[in-house]
Amino acid sequence: MTRETEESGGPHGKTSRSDDAVLLKVQGLVRDFDSLRALDGADLEVHSDTITGLIGPNGAGKTTLFNVVTGFHLAQGGRVTLNGQDITNLPPHRIFRHGLCRTFQIPREHQSLSVLENLMLVPIGQQGEGLFNAWLRPGAVRRQELANRKKALEVLEFVDLSHVRDEYARNLSGGQKKLLELARTLMTDPTLVLLDEPGAGVNPTLMHRLTDNIRYLNRERGITFLVIEHDMDMIMSLCDPVVVMSEGRQLMTGSPEEVRRDPRVLEAYLGGQYATVEG
Ligand SMILES: Nc1ncnc2c1ncn2[C@@H]1O[C@H](COP(=O)(O)OP(=O)(O)OP(=O)(O)O)[C@@H](O)[C@H]1O
């Protein structure tokens, strides 16, 4: 999934919120793939301090929305703002600097590096990046490397991957790779984290750890999450509000209970992978 060259140009009761708490605002996003309209005027709001769920049948446009919001695909119409700042069609590294991080449906670890090295590679403005710094400010570079290492070790401790820190990332289980994806986002002190199917392929024990970690980071560190997930139990217990997408646009948003009871949601899922959204 690459940015095209054309660029050169849970915890319930949180559903109603005031406009000034809007952290991410997506308005009328359009994205075509040849003759297929993947996003067809998609709207979405993520309010600060929420864990917002994003659900919908296969092909509804959820991942495409993530890709456009994070700059991996270009929008052909519409607008994305983060904290009131227009970030529409900025390149991914600039969006990342605004404090918006994401994970991928299929983890993108550096397979032949260790788990610890994977974290230390996350670009957080390393002083050593430029020749100028490496030659003329070796002390500053070294200090930053040490700080990065300390932070990486803390993050690994938090996600309970310390015991595999020297293991090649390719040797991790599917669930551990999801934890490593989350860990990589935490190296950057993000404001908003977009998680694409964090629960897919994760065993129940690691799933509990993952959801506990997300809740803790939301509550104690004030990180806002937008979570795509097909596991309805996870969505219903972790997220509020829940946004439902269908056919490239928003169908509704509401509390988990409102979503569960809405006949339009059932209808959107009928004929798809799920006959019901009962959790
Ligand atoms: N790079 C691409 N090239 C062509 N078509 C694409 C591309 N990415 C997505 N699509 C199409 O856009 C539509 C929306 O796909 P998307 O992956 O965003 O849906 P989704 O809601 O995330 O689905 P799922 O839950 O199955 O992951 C689908 O029809 C998909 O085949």
Topology readout:
Blueprint: E1 22-33, E2 36-47, E3 51-55, H1 62-69, E4 77-82, E5 85-86, H2 92-97, E6 100-102, H3 115-120, H4 131-136, H5 138-158, H6 174-186, E7 192-196, H7 204-221, E8 224-228, H8 232-238, E9 242-246, E10 249-254, H9 256-261, H10 263-269
Parallel strand pairs: 3-8, 3-9, 6-7, 7-8
Antiparallel strand pairs: 1-2, 1-4, 4-5, 9-10
Helix pairs in contact: 5-6
Bound molecules: adenosine-5'-triphosphate.
GO molecular function: ATP binding; ATP hydrolysis activity
Domain ABC transporter: 24-272
Keywords: ATP-binding, Nucleotide-binding, Transport
Text of the CATH class of the largest domain: Alpha Beta
Total beta strand runs? 10
- What is bound: which ligands? adenosine-5'-triphosphate
Lateral arrangement of strands in the main beta sheet = 6-7-8-3-9-10
User: What is the gyration radius calculated from CA atoms?
Assistant: 19 Å
CATH architecture of the largest domain: 3-Layer(aba) Sandwich
Q: Helical proportion?
A: 25-40%
Mean pLDDT level: 85
Number of helices: 10
Largest sheet: 6 strands, mixed
Q: How far apart, in Å, are the first and last alpha carbons?
A: 31 Å
Specify the overall morphology: globular
The topology string of helices and strands comes to EEEHEEHEHHHHEHEHEEHH
**Oligomeric form of this entry?**
single chain
Q: Which spans of ≥5 residues are poorly predicted at pLDDT below 50?
A: 1-16
- Structural class label: alpha/beta
Output the CATH topology of the largest domain.
Rossmann fold
Query: What percentage of the residues does DSSP assign to strands (E)?
Result: 15-25%
> How many independent structural domains?
2
Protein name: ABC transporter domain-containing protein
Organism: Litchfieldella anticariensis (strain DSM 16096 / CECT 5854 / CIP 108499 / LMG 22089 / FP35)
Keywords: ATP-binding, Nucleotide-binding, Transport
InterPro entries: AAA+_ATPase, ABC_AA/LPS_Transport, ABC_transporter-like_ATP-bd, ABC_transporter-like_CS, BCA_ABC_TP_C, P-loop_NTPase
